[in-house]
Amino acid sequence: MNLNQQPTVDQLARILAAGRDTLDDHILWVCKRGDVHIDALANDADGEDFERTHPELRARMPIYRRGKGYVGKKAAADRQFVNDVFQTLNREWNLSQGQGQVRRIASYC
């Protein structure tokens, strides 16, 4: 899913569905090209560490802690949640254009 290429809520749902909520913490992030990624993290990982090791990162959601229901098939089936994340990513992506620093997204639309 690329935020510059008319993304859809269904594309985001597929990304969220790929995560395994019971296994790992996750981070949902956007690179400089506008591609949306979800990566598994070591438990209790720090978002700043992730930023240091991913210089292409432009925006990120808060870390989704294991077992909280933010990733996986159930999360992807929650249309309100997915739509809120989708709207937030699009808004924050538009706001991040022309800025050199990472946007740390703290809340949903």
TrEMBL record:
Q: Which domain of life is it from?
A: Bacteria
In Swiss-Prot or TrEMBL terms, this protein is called Uncharacterized protein
Native organism: Pseudomonas rhizosphaerae
